[in-house]
Amino acid sequence: MGVVVPLDEARDPAAGLKPILDLVAADMASVNRIILDKAVSDVELIPKLAHHLIDSGGKRLRPMLTIAAAKLCGCEGQGHVRLAAAVEFLHTATLLHDDVVDDSDTRRGRKTARLLWGNQASVLVGDFLLGQAFRMMVDVGSLAALKILSNAAAVIAEGEVMQLAAAKNMATTEDEYLAIINAKTAALFLAAAEVGPALAGRPAEEQTALKSYGRNLGLAFQLVDDALDYAGDSKQLGKSVGDDFREGKITLPVILAFRRGSDSERQFWRDSLVEGKTSDENLAQAIQLIKRHKAVEATLERARTYGAMARDALAIFPDSVPKTALAEVVGFCVRRAH
Fold first, then answer.
1. What is the pLDDT of residue 10?
2. Confidence (pLDDT) at 234
3. Which of 22, 241, 276, 286 could bridge across to 2 with cysteines, CB 3.0–4.6 Å?
4. CA–CA separation, 230 vs 240, rounded Å?
5. d(CA 231, CA 228)
6. How many CB atoms lie within 10 A of CB 70?
7. pLDDT in tens, 268-293
8. Which helix (H) or strand (E) holds 202?
9. Domains in the chain, start-ordered, CATH in brackets?
10. Is there a contact between 255 and 28 (Cβ–Cβ < 8 Å)?
């Protein structure tokens, strides 16, 4: 139904992941073993529900960032591997909670856990995964790492509440929306990139640089997500185009189309997202309005700006394989189709 906007026709976006995949392959194998081990419980429903999401084909980008940033900073031992697993558990827990808050029926092309086992089970298993994440952080024994990841968990929760408060609010500004995704999405990218240098005891300027890298990468990642929901390909996305619209979410393409539109167009957005008139016909009209006001292109341009800021943050580090891998991830995030 949507108009597919190519993010970069000159290069396969997936190529941007190859350097980091090669770099972290051995450590990610260890992360995956830890994830399987820590998802075990005598309560039968817990591993069943947890594995439904863990095995659903996610890229595990955030723990890969943790490992790559740790390697960039010369981190030794296995502490960063356990922290990478903790990062993935934090992410998985937030997905379980997100799907309940958003009443989502699909994720990565599969039925959500809440649809299969109910909202209560999804929330409680999410809490179990959060608990396991904090156990792993404590096992590593780094107060600095624990502070970074526990702060991220609190900020993400704040972001979820901010998004809930902004739901169906057509007065939401771009600045307000960026504050939401800075908390809801970018906070975990930031923590994933910062925790390695903190564990390695690197200088403050290196930790600050990787915080900036992670934050800006997270913002770019989320803005591309927003654009793809109105201009992506359902088969590549693993979900239906227009899920944000059906859930009444106010994302950047909507904010821009609403601001740039006529009075009648703004009334259409109110009817659709505030009053819940999200039929397929209304989705088709929403896509046309977003296309008319070039809201997808504007959203992607902002994503590219944040991506450039993420790359620039790496400039203080000498050239190395990990630095190249982290820089290439930026290209993947801004060019990806899913």
1. 43
2. 52
3. 241
4. 10
5. 5
6. 29
7. 999 999 999 999 999 999 999 999 99
8. none
9. 13-335 (1.10.600.10)
10. no
Scan for tokens 């930031």, then name that residue.
190
| Non-local CB neighbours of 56 within 8 Å, separated by 6+ positions | 107, 108, 110
Amino acid letter, 313? A
Amino acid (one-letter) located at 147: K
The rounded distance, in Å, linking the Cα atoms of 57 and 55 is 6
Q: 19 with 67: CB under 8 angstroms?
A: no
pTM exceeding the 0.85 threshold for the entire prediction: yes
**Tokens at 272, concatenated:** 């659709």
* Cα dist from 11 to 14, 154, 230, whole Å: 9, 38, 22
Could you read off the pLDDT of 32-68 as tens digits, one per residue? 999 999 999 999 999 998 888 888 767 899 999 999 9
Worst-scoring range by mean pLDDT, 2-6, 18-22, 44-48, 100-104?
Answer: 2-6
Structure tokens at 43: 């309560």
Rounded to an integer, what distance in angstroms lies between the CA atom of residue 155 and that of residue 152? 5
Can you tell me the distance from the alpha carbon of 80 to that of 200, in angstroms, rounded to the nearest whole number? 9
Q: What is the DSSP string of 109-157?
A: TEE-HHHHH-HHHHHHHHHHHHHHHHHHHHHHT-HHHHHHHHHHHHHHH
Residue whose structure tokens are 């972001």:
159
Distance between CA atoms of 97 and 103, rounded to whole angstroms? 10
Report how far residue 180's alpha carbon sits from residue 314's, in angstroms, rounded to the nearest whole number.
25
- Give me 269's structure tokens: 């957005």
What integer pLDDT is reported at residue 240 of this predicted model? Answer: 67
